[in-house]
């Protein structure tokens, strides 16, 4: 160790010097010149050892195992280059690949090594990548929370790592986490326009929670196809798992309009997770309204508290839009029902705990009047699941086939009355359509905000994109599509609240209009980004993929036209 | 068990891009999103934690400002405060920290508070004076820029963030405390709590009731954006750098 001290002091002018270490003769040769090293190894005093231990330049030079002269040379050159470029001093992390050499003839070195290692063990454990990630996330959270506070940065670690945290923040900006700058009320796409004080408070609460718990992770969940069931369950304490379920079973008892506002605010941060929460909400409401007191007491509190999560199962491999032609049989056998059949495209299948399944209890009656709704818990014998479908969007959910092979459930699991299942299913779907339409609104809003920011930044032909008339007009058109969708959805939600007799067709209109238009908005915003819009680094492509399915599920938009025209032309 | 009073302020939301009015008289505030000052959220969270530890028996949140401040007060109630006090002042911008401190001191006295917790500063004024001034007016001990707070019912052991690091102090109650960023992470106002907050009582007051004169004592001469950053210059060596600094009159 002592010889290297000499290098430091003599070669501080940062020249490139060829250094070779002759192990046998214990000599270092500078640029060909020989220099004999003093044989002081045996008597390294405590003060010298201490000095060596504290020198930053020798952080990762620990006499642990063999090292070649080339390694030593390379490391010295690298350090000189770094000092020249003025990089921050590296942390004291011993790199196992490049330790200092231990001469086989080391008597004194042995002593030095022991003391150096002991000192090092006392100070710091080697930093794992997990620690670095944690530090970066903490720094990012702190920055996002209060970017203007200079604060007293008593956290010296965070100062030293400020580079990495700023980079992490920039990366999250590109992924869309920062696009939720607070919109002013004078913006035409301000989601709070026309809302009263209470509704604004709920919207704000949902926005805050979504921005913190959903927004930063949405892209990661999509990329890894990770289902954030723990985040969904944690949303229960915010009240998001029983929004329009009655208060006496643990729900929030909000109106459909308020639910739509909350769902829209949440889906601005993550569309698939919010959509899953709305499906759960639908199941919870169905049991609340149609269940016997025993069923309500057994299932609803657990659903609203997030202890169990529900799925809705109507579609079969043989019947999608023609829902009333479903073929799953349900035969009474003593005090049980025996179910046989399969359901497909079930979101949350395999993970969720309770399934509300539509089955045919009366095989003689074709059509809706022979259908009933049965609740099946996950671990019922005879219930199994297929493999995960690989989807275009909504990738964070598991979507599987549900298989019932002589699946036995007690008769008490029947929801409502036999033969009324289809009515229950359809009444649930009215709200479900408003919910899915609200999810589309949130996704489109996020895309619009991202595109708006991009247009102000990106330059072409000498000026920023937002001075190009075509793009200005295109954004105006997209904004109009977004706001008309929003109005339609809120009108339909209010119609359900007021028990409007035209509610079903209004909900169908809202779903048809909002899902199609918001998909167009998301696509248009993607186009604004140009080539960047096609990259996963930017939020638009995920929004486009996620919103595409909204025009298909909860009643395909073609069926919506059927519902509207039937009501319209029968008058 | 202590009674805690928490001061909250309604400010422009931290995420908003601030714009200066064209005439330089102030900042654009109409139809801009407002919310609770982040440091005030942290203060409320600290008070609520005291209540959860059964050290505080009641938390009174108070705010000074126009009628829209009732939203901010409702958020504080939704986070866990028990009741609120709203001092109606139509023009909050015209008030100085001294006037606010006088009002806060009066409220602390009338509500018989043992602890007065505030944020260390508000992100619009950035004064950072209110807590210290309030303590001086009340003649109570103060601990500002808190990093941690441990209260045992009579005294408090606090760590303060200072330039050199952390300073540990013991402070007797009643006292004024102001919290810094890292003391806690404020909770979300959950939907169920927001609904419960609607039923909590809010007292409405006027500055005259507190005996404070709110006539403006400060005039804002001009507000302007900070100058845009200009390009820097790369110098050859240390001598050139010193020369340039000398020319610019900096050294």
UniProtKB/TrEMBL annotation, chain A:
E.C. no: 1.3.8.5
Broad class of enzyme this protein falls into: oxidoreductase
Cofactor(s), by name: FAD
Name of the protein in question: Isobutyryl-CoA dehydrogenase, mitochondrial
GO CC entries: mitochondrion
Compositional bias (Basic and acidic residues): 47-65, 111-132
Acyl-CoA dehydrogenase/oxidase C-terminal domain span: 419-569
A single GO molecular function term of this UniProt record: short-chain 2-methyl fatty acyl-CoA dehydrogenase activity
Recorded metabolic or biological pathway in which this protein acts: Amino-acid degradation; L-valine degradation
Keywords annotated in UniProt: Branched-chain amino acid catabolism, FAD, Flavoprotein, Oxidoreductase, Transit peptide
Bias-annotated ranges (Basic residues): 133-144
Biological role: Isobutyryl-CoA dehydrogenase which catalyzes the conversion of 2-methylpropanoyl-CoA to (2E)-2-methylpropenoyl-CoA in the valine catabolic pathway. To a lesser extent, also able to catalyze the oxidation of (2S)-2-methylbutanoyl-CoA.
Domain Acyl-CoA dehydrogenase/oxidase N-terminal: 197-307
Annotated stretches, region: Disordered: 30-156
Family to which this protein belongs: Belongs to the acyl-CoA dehydrogenase family.
Catalytic activity reported: (2S)-2-methylbutanoyl-CoA + oxidized [electron-transfer flavoprotein] + H(+) = (2E)-2-methylbut-2-enoyl-CoA + reduced [electron-transfer flavoprotein]; 2-methylpropanoyl-CoA + oxidized [electron-transfer flavoprotein] + H(+) = 2-methylpropenoyl-CoA + reduced [electron-transfer flavoprotein]; propanoyl-CoA + oxidized [electron-transfer flavoprotein] + H(+) = acryloyl-CoA + reduced [electron-transfer flavoprotein]
PANTHER family: ISOBUTYRYL-COA DEHYDROGENASE, ISOBUTYRYL-COA DEHYDROGENASE, MITOCHONDRIAL
Organismal lineage: Eukaryota, Metazoa, Chordata, Tunicata, Appendicularia
Membrane-spanning ranges: none
Classification via Pfam families: Acyl-CoA_dh_1 (PF00441), Acyl-CoA_dh_M (PF02770), Acyl-CoA_dh_N (PF02771)
Sections of the chain in a coiled coil: none
Single Gene Ontology BP annotation: branched-chain amino acid catabolic process
Domain called Acyl-CoA oxidase/dehydrogenase middle: residue spans: 312-407
From TrEMBL, chain B:
Listed PANTHER family: ELECTRON TRANSFER FLAVOPROTEIN BETA-SUBUNIT, ELECTRON TRANSFER FLAVOPROTEIN SUBUNIT BETA
Protein name: Electron transfer flavoprotein subunit beta
Role this protein plays: Heterodimeric electron transfer flavoprotein that accepts electrons from several mitochondrial dehydrogenases, including acyl-CoA dehydrogenases, glutaryl-CoA and sarcosine dehydrogenase. It transfers the electrons to the main mitochondrial respiratory chain via ETF-ubiquinone oxidoreductase. Required for normal mitochondrial fatty acid oxidation and normal amino acid metabolism. ETFB binds an AMP molecule that probably has a purely structural role.
Electron transfer flavoprotein alpha/beta-subunit N-terminal domain location: 24-214
Protein location: Mitochondrion matrix
Highest taxon, organism lineage: Eukaryota
Keywords: Electron transport, Mitochondrion, Transport
GO BP field: amino acid catabolic process; fatty acid beta-oxidation using acyl-CoA dehydrogenase
Family recorded in the similarity comment: Belongs to the ETF beta-subunit/FixA family.
The protein's assembly and partners: Heterodimer of an alpha and a beta subunit. Heterodimer composed of ETFA and ETFB. Identified in a complex that contains ETFA, ETFB and ETFRF1. Interacts with ACADM.
InterPro entries: ETF_a/b_N (IPR014730), ETF_b (IPR012255), ETF_beta_N (IPR033948), Rossmann-like_a/b/a_fold (IPR014729)
Lineage: Eukaryota, Metazoa, Chordata, Tunicata, Appendicularia
Record's signal peptide: none
Gene Ontology CC terms, in alphabetical order: electron transfer flavoprotein complex; mitochondrial matrix
Pfam families: ETF
GO function term, MF aspect, one: electron transfer activity
């Amino acid at each position: 160790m002592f010889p290297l001290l000499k290098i430091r002091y003599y070669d501080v002018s940062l020249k490139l010097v060829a250094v070779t270490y002759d192990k046998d003769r214990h000599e270092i040769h500078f640029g060909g010149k020989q220099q004999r090293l003093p044989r002081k190894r045996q008597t390294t005093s405590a003060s010298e050892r201490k000095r060596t231990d504290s020198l930053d330049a020798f952080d990762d030079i620990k006499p642990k195992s063999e090292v070649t002269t080339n390694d030593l040379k390379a490391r010295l050159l690298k350090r000189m280059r770094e000092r020249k470029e003025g990089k921050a001093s590296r942390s004291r992390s011993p790199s196992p690949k490049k330790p200092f050499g231990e001469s086989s003839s080391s008597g004194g070195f042995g002593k030095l090594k022991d003391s150096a290692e002991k000192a090092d063990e006392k100070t710091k454990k080697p930093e794992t990548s997990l620690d670095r990630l944690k530090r970066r996330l903490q720094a990012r959270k702190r920055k996002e929370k209060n970017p203007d506070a200079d604060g007293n940065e008593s956290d010296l670690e965070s100062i030293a790592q400020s580079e990495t945290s700023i980079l992490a923040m920039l990366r999250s900006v590109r992924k869309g986490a920062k696009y939720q700058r607070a919109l002013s009320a004078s913006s035409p796409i301000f989601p709070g326009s026309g809302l009263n004080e209470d509704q604004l408070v709920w919207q704000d609460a949902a926005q805050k929670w979504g921005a913190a718990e959903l927004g930063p992770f949405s892209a990661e969940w999509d990329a890894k196809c990770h289902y954030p069931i723990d985040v969904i369950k944690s949303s229960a304490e915010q009240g998001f798992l029983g929004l329009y379920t009655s208060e006496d079973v643990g729900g929030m008892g909000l109106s459909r309009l308020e639910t739509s506002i909350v769902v829209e605010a949440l889906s601005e941060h993550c569309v698939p997770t919010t959509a899953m929460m709305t499906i759960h909400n639908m199941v919870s409401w169905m049991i609340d309204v149609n269940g016997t007191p025993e069923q309500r007491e057994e299932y609803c509190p657990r659903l609203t508290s997030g202890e169990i999560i529900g799925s809705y199962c109507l579609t079969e491999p043989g019947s999608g839009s023609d829902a009333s032609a479903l073929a799953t049989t349900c035969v009474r056998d003593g005090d049980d029902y025996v179910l046989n059949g399969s359901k497909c495209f079930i979101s949350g299948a395999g993970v969720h705990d309770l399934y509300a399944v539509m089955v045919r209890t009366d095989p003689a009656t074709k059509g809706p009047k022979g259908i009933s709704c049965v609740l099946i818990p996950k671990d019922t014998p005879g219930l199994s699941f297929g493999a995960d479908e690989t989807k275009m969007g909504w990738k964070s959910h598991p979507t599987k086939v549900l298989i019932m092979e002589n699946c036995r459930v007690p008769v008490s699991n029947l929801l409502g009355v036999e033969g009324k299942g289809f009515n229950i299913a359809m009444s649930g779907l009215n709200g479900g359509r408003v919910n899915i339409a609200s999810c589309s609104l949130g996704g489109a809003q996020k895309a619009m905000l991202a595109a708006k920011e991009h247009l102000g930044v990106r330059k072409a032909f000498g000026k920023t994109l937002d001075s190009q008339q075509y793009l200005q007009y295109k954004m105006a058109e997209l904004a109009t599509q977004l706001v008309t969708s929003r109005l339609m959805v809120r009108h339909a939600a209010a119609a359900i609240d007021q028990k409007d007799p035209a509610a079903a067709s209004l909900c169908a209109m809202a779903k048809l209009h909002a899902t199609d238009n918001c998909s167009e908005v998301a696509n248009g915003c993607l186009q604004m980004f140009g080539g960047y819009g096609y990259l996963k680094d930017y939020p638009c492509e995920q929004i486009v993929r996620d919103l595409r399915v909204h025009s298909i599920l909860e009643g395909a938009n073609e069926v919506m036209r059927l519902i509207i025209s039937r009501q319209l032309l029968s008058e | 068990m202590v009674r805690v009073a928490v001061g909250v302020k309604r400010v422009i939301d931290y995420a908003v891009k601030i714009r200066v009015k064209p005439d330089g008289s102030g900042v654009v505030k109409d139809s801009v999103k407002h919310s609770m000052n982040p440091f005030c959220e942290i203060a409320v969270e600290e008070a609520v934690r005291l209540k959860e530890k059964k050290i505080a028996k009641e938390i009174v949140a108070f705010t000074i400002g126009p009628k829209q401040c009732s939203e901010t007060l409702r958020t504080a109630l939704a986070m866990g405060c028990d009741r609120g006090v709203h001092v109606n002042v139509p023009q909050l911008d015209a008030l100085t920290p001294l006037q606010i401190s006088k009002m806060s001191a009066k409220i602390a006295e009338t509500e018989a508070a043992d602890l007065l917790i505030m944020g260390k500063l508000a992100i619009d004024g950035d004064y950072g004076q209110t807590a210290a001034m309030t303590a001086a007016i009340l003649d109570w001990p103060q601990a500002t820029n808190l990093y941690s707070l441990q209260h045992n019912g009579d005294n408090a052991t606090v760590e303060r963030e200072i330039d050199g690091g952390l300073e540990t102090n013991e402070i007797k109650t009643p006292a004024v405390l102001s919290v810094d960023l890292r003391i806690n992470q404020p909770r979300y106002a959950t939907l169920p709590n927001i609904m419960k907050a609607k039923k909590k009582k809010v007292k409405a007051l006027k500055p005259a009731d507190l005996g404070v004169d709110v006539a403006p004592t400060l005039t804002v001469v001009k507000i302007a954006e900070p100058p845009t950053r200009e390009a820097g210059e790369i110098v050859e060596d240390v001598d050139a750098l010193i020369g340039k600094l000398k020319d610019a009159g900096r050294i």
